[in-house]
Amino acid sequence: MSTSSNWTPISRTNSECGLALAKALILIACLLVGVLLGITTEVVVNRHKSASQSQGLKTEKPVAKKSSAHNAKSVPPQPLNFDVNQAISHVTYLAQTIGLREEGTSDENRAAEYIQQRLAEFGYKPIVQLIPITTTQRTSRNVIAKLDGRTSPQQTIVVGAHMDSKGGPGANDNATGCAVLLELARVLKNNNRQIPTIEFVFFGGEEIAQGGGSNDHHWGSRYFVNALTPVERAGIAGMISVDMIGTGPEFRARNMGLAPKTLVDFMLELGGTSGMSYLRDSSSVGNSDHEPFEKAGFTSVWLEYRDFPQYHTPGDTVSTVDFSHVQTVGRLLQDFFEQYLSPDRMNLLPSRQ
Ligand SMILES: [Zn+2]
Asked: Which of 26, 108, 114, 251 has a 20 to 30 A CA-CA distance from 204?
Protein backbone atom coordinates (compact mmCIF):
# COMPACT_ATOMS: atom_id res chain seq x y z
CA MET A 1 0.00 0.00 0.00
CA SER A 2 2.66 2.51 1.08
CA THR A 3 4.42 1.88 -2.06
CA SER A 4 1.28 2.58 -3.86
CA SER A 5 0.60 5.88 -2.02
CA ASN A 6 4.18 6.97 -2.53
CA TRP A 7 4.16 5.90 -6.06
CA THR A 8 1.08 7.87 -7.10
CA PRO A 9 2.36 11.49 -6.80
CA ILE A 10 5.72 10.54 -8.11
CA SER A 11 3.99 8.85 -10.84
CA ARG A 12 1.83 11.86 -11.52
CA THR A 13 4.81 14.18 -11.52
CA ASN A 14 6.72 11.85 -13.79
CA SER A 15 3.68 11.40 -15.88
CA GLU A 16 3.39 15.12 -16.45
CA CYS A 17 7.03 15.47 -17.21
CA GLY A 18 6.93 12.29 -19.20
CA LEU A 19 3.95 13.51 -21.16
CA ALA A 20 5.75 16.63 -22.22
CA LEU A 21 8.89 14.67 -22.91
CA ALA A 22 6.93 12.06 -24.81
CA LYS A 23 5.24 14.73 -26.91
CA ALA A 24 8.62 16.23 -27.68
CA LEU A 25 10.04 12.85 -28.48
CA ILE A 26 7.05 11.97 -30.64
CA LEU A 27 7.37 15.27 -32.42
CA ILE A 28 11.10 14.72 -33.00
CA ALA A 29 10.45 11.13 -33.99
CA CYS A 30 7.73 12.21 -36.39
CA LEU A 31 10.00 14.81 -37.85
CA LEU A 32 12.82 12.32 -38.15
CA VAL A 33 10.53 9.68 -39.62
CA GLY A 34 9.04 12.26 -41.89
CA VAL A 35 12.45 13.44 -43.00
CA LEU A 36 13.67 9.89 -43.42
CA LEU A 37 10.53 8.86 -45.25
CA GLY A 38 10.79 11.92 -47.38
CA ILE A 39 14.39 11.23 -48.19
CA THR A 40 13.74 7.55 -48.72
CA THR A 41 10.69 8.24 -50.80
CA GLU A 42 12.59 10.82 -52.71
CA VAL A 43 15.44 8.40 -53.30
CA VAL A 44 13.06 5.72 -54.42
CA VAL A 45 11.12 8.18 -56.53
CA ASN A 46 14.31 9.56 -57.97
CA ARG A 47 15.64 6.08 -58.59
CA HIS A 48 12.39 5.18 -60.26
CA LYS A 49 12.37 8.43 -62.15
CA SER A 50 15.96 8.16 -63.17
CA ALA A 51 15.47 4.54 -64.29
CA SER A 52 12.33 5.30 -66.20
CA GLN A 53 13.70 8.57 -67.47
CA SER A 54 16.91 6.97 -68.67
CA GLN A 55 14.91 4.35 -70.53
CA GLY A 56 11.88 6.35 -71.47
CA LEU A 57 12.98 9.86 -72.29
CA LYS A 58 13.64 9.19 -75.92
CA THR A 59 10.67 7.19 -77.18
CA GLU A 60 8.76 4.17 -76.02
CA LYS A 61 10.34 1.89 -78.58
CA PRO A 62 13.86 2.08 -77.14
CA VAL A 63 12.39 1.16 -73.73
CA ALA A 64 10.88 -1.97 -75.17
CA LYS A 65 14.07 -2.76 -77.02
CA LYS A 66 16.24 -2.24 -73.94
CA SER A 67 13.84 -4.27 -71.84
CA SER A 68 13.67 -7.19 -74.26
CA ALA A 69 17.41 -7.10 -74.83
CA HIS A 70 17.94 -7.25 -71.09
CA ASN A 71 15.50 -10.15 -70.74
CA ALA A 72 17.12 -12.01 -73.62
CA LYS A 73 20.45 -11.81 -71.81
CA SER A 74 19.14 -12.85 -68.41
CA VAL A 75 16.83 -15.70 -69.51
CA PRO A 76 18.78 -18.82 -70.60
CA PRO A 77 17.71 -20.39 -73.91
CA GLN A 78 14.98 -22.99 -73.59
CA PRO A 79 16.23 -26.59 -73.97
CA LEU A 80 15.34 -28.02 -77.35
CA ASN A 81 13.64 -31.34 -77.98
CA PHE A 82 14.31 -33.54 -81.00
CA ASP A 83 11.98 -32.16 -83.68
CA VAL A 84 10.79 -34.79 -86.12
CA ASN A 85 9.76 -32.10 -88.63
CA GLN A 86 13.41 -31.12 -88.96
CA ALA A 87 14.24 -34.78 -89.57
CA ILE A 88 11.51 -35.03 -92.23
CA SER A 89 12.99 -32.07 -94.12
CA HIS A 90 16.47 -33.67 -94.07
CA VAL A 91 15.17 -37.05 -95.29
CA THR A 92 13.16 -35.32 -98.02
CA TYR A 93 16.16 -33.33 -99.25
CA LEU A 94 18.56 -36.27 -99.24
CA ALA A 95 16.22 -38.90 -100.73
CA GLN A 96 13.92 -36.79 -102.89
CA THR A 97 15.82 -33.66 -103.96
CA ILE A 98 19.10 -35.55 -104.43
CA GLY A 99 17.91 -39.16 -104.69
CA LEU A 100 20.34 -42.00 -105.41
CA ARG A 101 23.69 -41.23 -103.72
CA GLU A 102 26.21 -43.84 -104.86
CA GLU A 103 29.56 -43.64 -103.15
CA GLY A 104 32.15 -41.41 -104.71
CA THR A 105 29.63 -39.74 -107.04
CA SER A 106 28.68 -36.07 -107.29
CA ASP A 107 25.32 -36.96 -105.72
CA GLU A 108 26.96 -38.43 -102.64
CA ASN A 109 29.04 -35.27 -102.52
CA ARG A 110 25.87 -33.15 -102.72
CA ALA A 111 24.63 -34.97 -99.63
CA ALA A 112 27.94 -34.30 -97.89
CA GLU A 113 27.72 -30.60 -98.78
CA TYR A 114 24.12 -30.36 -97.56
CA ILE A 115 25.16 -31.92 -94.25
CA GLN A 116 28.19 -29.63 -93.90
CA GLN A 117 25.98 -26.58 -94.49
CA ARG A 118 23.46 -27.63 -91.86
CA LEU A 119 26.21 -28.39 -89.34
CA ALA A 120 27.79 -24.98 -89.96
CA GLU A 121 24.40 -23.33 -89.37
CA PHE A 122 24.18 -25.15 -86.03
CA GLY A 123 27.54 -23.69 -85.00
CA TYR A 124 29.91 -26.57 -85.84
CA LYS A 125 33.10 -26.49 -87.86
CA PRO A 126 32.78 -29.76 -89.78
CA ILE A 127 35.84 -31.36 -91.26
CA VAL A 128 36.00 -33.69 -94.26
CA GLN A 129 38.02 -36.86 -94.73
CA LEU A 130 38.59 -37.95 -98.33
CA ILE A 131 38.18 -41.70 -98.85
CA PRO A 132 39.70 -43.51 -101.85
CA ILE A 133 37.36 -46.19 -103.23
CA THR A 134 39.84 -48.58 -104.79
CA THR A 135 37.30 -50.65 -106.72
CA THR A 136 35.94 -47.67 -108.68
CA GLN A 137 38.86 -45.25 -108.41
CA ARG A 138 36.39 -42.70 -107.05
CA THR A 139 36.73 -40.56 -103.96
CA SER A 140 34.13 -40.63 -101.20
CA ARG A 141 34.17 -38.57 -98.02
CA ASN A 142 33.34 -38.54 -94.31
CA VAL A 143 31.90 -35.41 -92.69
CA ILE A 144 32.83 -35.07 -89.02
CA ALA A 145 31.50 -32.64 -86.42
CA LYS A 146 32.67 -32.59 -82.82
CA LEU A 147 30.73 -31.48 -79.75
CA ASP A 148 32.89 -31.08 -76.66
CA GLY A 149 31.71 -32.90 -73.56
CA ARG A 150 31.12 -31.43 -70.13
CA THR A 151 31.91 -33.79 -67.26
CA SER A 152 33.72 -36.49 -69.28
CA PRO A 153 35.28 -34.43 -72.11
CA GLN A 154 38.21 -36.81 -72.58
CA GLN A 155 35.87 -39.65 -73.56
CA THR A 156 34.31 -39.63 -76.99
CA ILE A 157 31.24 -41.46 -78.25
CA VAL A 158 31.14 -41.71 -82.04
CA VAL A 159 27.63 -41.49 -83.48
CA GLY A 160 27.65 -42.48 -87.14
CA ALA A 161 25.31 -42.70 -90.12
CA HIS A 162 26.15 -43.36 -93.75
CA MET A 163 25.19 -40.86 -96.44
CA ASP A 164 25.41 -43.04 -99.55
CA SER A 165 22.63 -45.17 -100.97
CA LYS A 166 22.46 -48.15 -103.27
CA GLY A 167 19.81 -49.23 -105.77
CA GLY A 168 17.45 -46.37 -104.96
CA PRO A 169 16.96 -43.00 -103.24
CA GLY A 170 17.76 -44.47 -99.84
CA ALA A 171 15.15 -42.68 -97.76
CA ASN A 172 15.19 -45.32 -95.05
CA ASP A 173 18.71 -46.58 -95.93
CA ASN A 174 20.07 -44.22 -94.77
CA ALA A 175 18.69 -40.68 -95.03
CA THR A 176 16.83 -41.49 -91.80
CA GLY A 177 20.09 -42.07 -89.91
CA CYS A 178 21.63 -38.86 -91.30
CA ALA A 179 18.50 -36.93 -90.33
CA VAL A 180 18.66 -38.22 -86.75
CA LEU A 181 22.31 -37.21 -86.46
CA LEU A 182 21.69 -33.74 -87.89
CA GLU A 183 18.74 -33.03 -85.59
CA LEU A 184 20.59 -34.47 -82.60
CA ALA A 185 23.59 -32.28 -83.44
CA ARG A 186 21.34 -29.19 -83.48
CA VAL A 187 19.55 -30.01 -80.23
CA LEU A 188 22.62 -31.04 -78.21
CA LYS A 189 24.60 -28.02 -79.41
CA ASN A 190 21.88 -25.75 -78.07
CA ASN A 191 21.31 -27.66 -74.82
CA ASN A 192 24.96 -28.53 -74.13
CA ARG A 193 24.03 -30.93 -71.34
CA GLN A 194 25.68 -34.06 -72.64
CA ILE A 195 28.36 -35.81 -70.61
CA PRO A 196 31.00 -37.11 -73.04
CA THR A 197 32.43 -35.57 -76.16
CA ILE A 198 30.41 -36.62 -79.19
CA GLU A 199 31.70 -37.01 -82.72
CA PHE A 200 28.94 -37.00 -85.30
CA VAL A 201 30.36 -38.84 -88.28
CA PHE A 202 28.50 -38.95 -91.60
CA PHE A 203 30.19 -41.81 -93.41
CA GLY A 204 30.67 -42.10 -97.14
CA GLY A 205 30.82 -45.39 -99.01
CA GLU A 206 29.05 -47.74 -96.61
CA GLU A 207 27.55 -49.83 -99.39
CA ILE A 208 29.39 -52.22 -101.69
CA ALA A 209 30.61 -50.20 -104.65
CA GLN A 210 29.90 -51.23 -108.22
CA GLY A 211 32.14 -54.12 -109.17
CA GLY A 212 33.17 -54.66 -105.59
CA GLY A 213 33.41 -57.99 -103.79
CA SER A 214 31.36 -58.98 -100.78
CA ASN A 215 33.86 -57.38 -98.40
CA ASP A 216 34.30 -54.10 -100.33
CA HIS A 217 32.14 -51.90 -98.15
CA HIS A 218 32.24 -49.68 -95.06
CA TRP A 219 34.88 -47.56 -96.81
CA GLY A 220 34.29 -44.45 -94.74
CA SER A 221 34.05 -46.12 -91.33
CA ARG A 222 37.04 -48.37 -91.96
CA TYR A 223 39.06 -45.37 -93.13
CA PHE A 224 38.00 -43.42 -90.01
CA VAL A 225 39.11 -46.20 -87.63
CA ASN A 226 42.40 -46.78 -89.47
CA ALA A 227 43.21 -43.06 -89.43
CA LEU A 228 42.80 -42.70 -85.65
CA THR A 229 45.94 -41.59 -83.83
CA PRO A 230 46.85 -43.54 -80.66
CA VAL A 231 45.55 -40.66 -78.55
CA GLU A 232 42.26 -40.50 -80.48
CA ARG A 233 41.92 -44.28 -80.29
CA ALA A 234 42.41 -44.21 -76.53
CA GLY A 235 39.73 -41.52 -76.16
CA ILE A 236 36.92 -43.37 -77.95
CA ALA A 237 34.56 -44.91 -75.40
CA GLY A 238 32.11 -46.44 -77.86
CA MET A 239 30.30 -46.21 -81.19
CA ILE A 240 26.62 -45.98 -82.15
CA SER A 241 25.59 -46.60 -85.75
CA VAL A 242 22.19 -45.24 -86.78
CA ASP A 243 21.20 -47.04 -89.95
CA MET A 244 17.74 -47.76 -91.39
CA ILE A 245 15.59 -46.61 -88.50
CA GLY A 246 12.42 -45.64 -90.36
CA THR A 247 10.73 -48.85 -91.46
CA GLY A 248 9.75 -52.20 -89.99
CA PRO A 249 8.15 -53.61 -86.83
CA GLU A 250 11.30 -54.79 -85.01
CA PHE A 251 13.40 -52.25 -83.08
CA ARG A 252 16.85 -53.76 -82.66
CA ALA A 253 20.11 -53.02 -80.89
CA ARG A 254 22.63 -55.10 -82.85
CA ASN A 255 26.28 -55.96 -82.65
CA MET A 256 28.64 -58.67 -83.86
CA GLY A 257 29.60 -59.98 -80.44
CA LEU A 258 33.28 -59.17 -81.00
CA ALA A 259 33.64 -56.38 -78.43
CA PRO A 260 32.16 -55.75 -74.96
CA LYS A 261 28.38 -55.47 -75.12
CA THR A 262 28.15 -52.57 -72.64
CA LEU A 263 26.73 -50.02 -75.06
CA VAL A 264 24.13 -52.53 -76.29
CA ASP A 265 23.07 -53.16 -72.68
CA PHE A 266 22.83 -49.42 -72.00
CA MET A 267 20.59 -48.97 -75.04
CA LEU A 268 18.41 -51.93 -74.08
CA GLU A 269 18.00 -50.59 -70.56
CA LEU A 270 17.01 -47.17 -71.86
CA GLY A 271 15.06 -48.33 -74.93
CA GLY A 272 13.34 -51.40 -73.50
CA THR A 273 10.11 -49.47 -73.04
CA SER A 274 10.23 -48.57 -76.74
CA GLY A 275 10.21 -52.26 -77.63
CA MET A 276 13.91 -52.51 -78.41
CA SER A 277 15.49 -55.96 -78.29
CA TYR A 278 18.91 -57.42 -79.01
CA LEU A 279 20.00 -59.03 -82.27
CA ARG A 280 23.43 -60.49 -82.74
CA ASP A 281 24.84 -60.30 -86.26
CA SER A 282 25.70 -63.70 -87.64
CA SER A 283 27.66 -62.06 -90.45
CA SER A 284 31.43 -61.95 -90.13
CA VAL A 285 31.63 -58.54 -91.84
CA GLY A 286 28.79 -56.80 -90.06
CA ASN A 287 26.07 -54.96 -91.91
CA SER A 288 26.64 -51.39 -90.86
CA ASP A 289 29.39 -48.94 -89.88
CA HIS A 290 29.84 -50.32 -86.37
CA GLU A 291 31.79 -53.20 -87.94
CA PRO A 292 35.31 -51.69 -88.07
CA PHE A 293 34.82 -50.17 -84.60
CA GLU A 294 33.79 -53.49 -83.12
CA LYS A 295 36.65 -55.28 -84.82
CA ALA A 296 39.00 -52.70 -83.28
CA GLY A 297 37.59 -53.58 -79.84
CA PHE A 298 35.26 -50.61 -79.24
CA THR A 299 31.94 -51.36 -77.58
CA SER A 300 29.46 -50.65 -80.38
CA VAL A 301 25.77 -50.81 -81.14
CA TRP A 302 23.76 -50.55 -84.33
CA LEU A 303 20.26 -49.12 -83.90
CA GLU A 304 17.89 -50.39 -86.60
CA TYR A 305 14.22 -51.01 -87.38
CA ARG A 306 13.65 -54.10 -89.51
CA ASP A 307 12.71 -55.89 -91.75
CA PHE A 308 12.70 -53.65 -94.77
CA PRO A 309 11.25 -55.12 -98.00
CA GLN A 310 12.39 -52.14 -100.15
CA TYR A 311 16.04 -52.60 -99.13
CA HIS A 312 18.37 -51.42 -101.95
CA THR A 313 15.50 -50.88 -104.41
CA PRO A 314 13.93 -47.82 -106.09
CA GLY A 315 11.06 -48.33 -103.64
CA ASP A 316 13.13 -46.96 -100.72
CA THR A 317 11.31 -43.63 -100.91
CA VAL A 318 10.18 -41.05 -98.34
CA SER A 319 6.66 -42.51 -98.41
CA THR A 320 7.96 -45.79 -96.92
CA VAL A 321 9.35 -44.06 -93.84
CA ASP A 322 7.41 -44.16 -90.58
CA PHE A 323 8.63 -40.95 -88.99
CA SER A 324 7.32 -41.97 -85.58
CA HIS A 325 10.22 -44.48 -85.60
CA VAL A 326 12.62 -41.68 -86.50
CA GLN A 327 11.30 -39.63 -83.61
CA THR A 328 11.59 -42.59 -81.22
CA VAL A 329 15.26 -43.05 -82.08
CA GLY A 330 16.00 -39.31 -81.97
CA ARG A 331 14.37 -38.81 -78.57
CA LEU A 332 16.03 -41.99 -77.26
CA LEU A 333 19.47 -40.74 -78.22
CA GLN A 334 18.76 -37.29 -76.81
CA ASP A 335 17.76 -38.88 -73.49
CA PHE A 336 20.79 -41.13 -73.67
CA PHE A 337 23.23 -38.24 -73.94
CA GLU A 338 21.44 -35.69 -71.79
CA GLN A 339 20.18 -37.84 -68.95
CA TYR A 340 21.11 -41.52 -69.03
CA LEU A 341 24.83 -41.32 -69.68
CA SER A 342 25.98 -40.17 -66.24
CA PRO A 343 29.68 -40.06 -65.29
CA ASP A 344 29.10 -43.30 -63.33
CA ARG A 345 27.83 -45.03 -66.45
CA MET A 346 30.68 -43.56 -68.49
CA ASN A 347 33.03 -45.29 -66.06
CA LEU A 348 31.35 -48.62 -66.87
CA LEU A 349 32.28 -48.33 -70.55
CA PRO A 350 35.32 -50.49 -71.26
CA SER A 351 38.61 -48.65 -71.46
CA ARG A 352 41.00 -49.48 -74.27
CA GLN A 353 43.94 -47.63 -72.72
ZN1 LIG B 1 22.55 -48.67 -94.58
From this structure: 251
